[in-house]
Design a protein that fits this description.
Oligomer: homodimer
Low-confidence stretches of chain A: 1-29, 365-369
Largest interface: A-B, 97 and 98 residues
Order of helices and strands of chain A: HEEEHEHHHHEHEHEHEH
CATH class of one domain in chain A: Alpha Beta
CATH superfamily of one domain in chain A: Alpha/Beta hydrolase fold, catalytic domain
Number of helices of chain A: 10
CATH topology of one domain in chain A: Rossmann fold
Distance between the termini of chain A: 50 Å
Radius of gyration of chain A: 22 Å
């Protein structure tokens, strides 16, 4: 903050951001008009969506119809814990399929058009020749969730204490926790997150219902199964799902060619057994962390600690003979990346680094197993 | 059922369907492998997703964090009642933008890849030259929902009776209500819905949280606003959202060039005032109803009554000088269409009929207003 020009710019940007947040309570001028069209067409061999996994179960008698406040006929069934997946396959495939799994309180939208209307990783990876698959985590978005406990409580069959936690990140917590800046409304001078569009990120957020899920989390089996269906895929997780690829690999490594862990909440370096580390060491692993890891205090997750933990995990995997790397852009002179690195202004630059690693580690004959 | 061959085939199909439903409780062999690739590439000028509308509101103090069971700092904010929209714009536009809104307990997925893996209307309309926009209704899918009342009840601040109804259609109700056949597991002999993949439709379903929404339903303003942002769009609604285009037009007709009402739960023919009918008569309207409207008894919605009501509505609009039509495929010799007409085996044949109507009614100089 010793540079007066930068400092003034920061203050101005902060004021603009607060104005943008305030105006978001009324009609915004953003939305569709902010979305930028690419300069060249996208040519797809195929695209679409499908569901993975799920269980067909009997509805609770406490379920009430929309039309009449009556329970369903006894024994009627619904499907729960399925996982929605959208995908695009490029006309000319040049790389391995990639599965992109989103983080807490968000959906697969995280990897699509950025809050300020630029191309997201979903389309960019396709343009770079990778068939790309974007799920909504089970219990979120188009995957839906199991409402049986909710209906039981509503009907008085179960106590209120049985209601699982439904939660959202508040905008203020997001600002510091996702490292947009040191205090709400003030970005870091070199911040890469498009803070002028932070209200759009707020609009991408949905309730997080992970507490509804049974154990083990159905996302683990669904993700492993998706990789198997793809006959070999790179699994990418972010934040809440940052270590989901590791759990999927431990459940069933059959279809997993490589794993990319984007700012997980730690890598459980001391928790995995040697047997588990040996299993994980058979698949190439890349961890990615942005900038300003220790610059924000008082937030819920200390990112420096998670970074350190992932480096310790990488060391264990390497000691077990695996291929594991940390991609930390600041060491390459790339500064200012946030926790929402797939949305940052330099998101395609970061994508290129990840794509390069994927290319090196999924080449035929260059796989550990 | 007088044709013994057809009758035997029906019984066999019914048995297969029940077997498919039973097997869906365990690992299914469908999913990705059932998805069919098209024979020619899809060339897009652009694609992506964005959010329409929404309000930035203060979180309830009863909201608990994921990380610690603590309320958020006072006054933190989240966005609610926004509408997620995904879209594709073809390289060579040859028609008006179309907005496809889904029905109850479903999401925008309804218009994408069909349960048996064929091309849905979303991609087909794009291939026919229409920029196409698919929202998730506010309170559903990637649009999320407002959890404040839920959290208040969970914290004991509000009584259990404040919990809004969360509901799902049971598979058995869907079978008869959506007119797949006369009784669960038995299809009509000429049924167009791909009943062998009915378990996939069950997996597309999500909890319907419309009861969470404030009045007026935010989907009305969001849809009208989306049409305005598109500088003129055709609004298509289905079932629960079947008359949403009419409500949007009454709220703000600015961007609405035509309206397609797919099997709405009635057209409120006796409820609209003459002033409202006069306003609606300025925009071309097409209603679409499938087959077997009166063949299933004992279901919640009697489709023959809704069909009759929409014909009465059309008569009122025409009497007011408007362009309004009923597309009823059986009158064209096309039999067996279900309530999920966009997923039926002849879904592209039905799409062609609608596209033809849209073309005629959105041509420059051929608009009523």
């Amino acid at each position: 903050m010793s540079n007066p020009r930068r400092s003034a710019a920061t203050v101005l940007t902060g004021a603009l951001v607060l104005a943008a947040l305030a105006s978001s309570t009324t009609a915004s001028s953003q939305e569709l008009s902010a979305v930028q069209a690419p300069s060249s067409p996208l040519i797809l061999r195929s695209r679409g969506s499908f569901l993975v996994g799920g269980e067909n179960v009997t509805q609770t008698p406490t379920q009430l119809s929309y039309f009449t406040p009556q329970p369903p006929p006894a024994g009627t069934r619904v499907t729960v814990n399925q996982m929605y997946v959208e995908y695009m396959v490029p006309m000319h495939q040049r790389g391995a399929p990639v599965v992109m799994i989103h983080g807490a309180t968000l959906t697969g939208k995280s990897y699509d058009t950025t809050p300020d209307g630029r191309m997201g990783w979903y389309e960019y990876f396709v343009r770079r020749g990778h068939p790309t698959y974007v799920p909504d985590q089970v219990s979120r978005g188009r995957s839906g969730f199991d409402i049986s406990t909710y209906n039981d409580v509503r009907a008085g069959v179960k106590p209120v204490s049985a209601l699982p936690n439904f939660w959202r990140f508040g905008d203020e917590l997001v600002w510091t926790q996702f490292r947009f800046g040191p205090t709400f409304g003030t970005p870091f001078p070199d911040e890469q997150f498009p803070v002028e569009a932070v209200a759009e990120l707020s609009r991408q957020a949905v309730p997080d219902l992970n507490y509804v899920l049974p154990t083990p989390n159905p996302n683990i089996a669904a993700t492993a199964r998706l990789a198997t269906q793809l006959n070999g895929a790179v699994l990418m997780g972010h934040s809440q799902s940052g270590t989901l690829p590791l759990d999927a690999a431990l459940a069933d490594p059959t279809g997993i060619r490589a794993m990319v862990l984007l700012e997980p909440g730690g890598c459980r370096s001391t928790q995995f057994t040697d047997t588990q580390i040996a299993a994980l060491a058979k698949i190439p692993i890349l961890a990615v962390f942005g900038d300003h890891l220790d610059a924000v205090t008082g937030t819920v997750v200390n990112w420096q600690n998670q970074f350190n933990d992932c480096n310790a995990f990488i060391a264990r995997v390497k000691a077990a003979g695996g291929v594991a790397e940390m991609l930390h852009p600041p060491t390459l002179g790339i500064r200012g990346n946030s926790h929402m690195i797939m949305m940052d202004k330099n998101n395609l630059q970061i994508a290129d680094l990840i794509l390069s690693w994927i290319g090196r580690n999924t080449r035929a004959g260059n796989q550990t197993r």
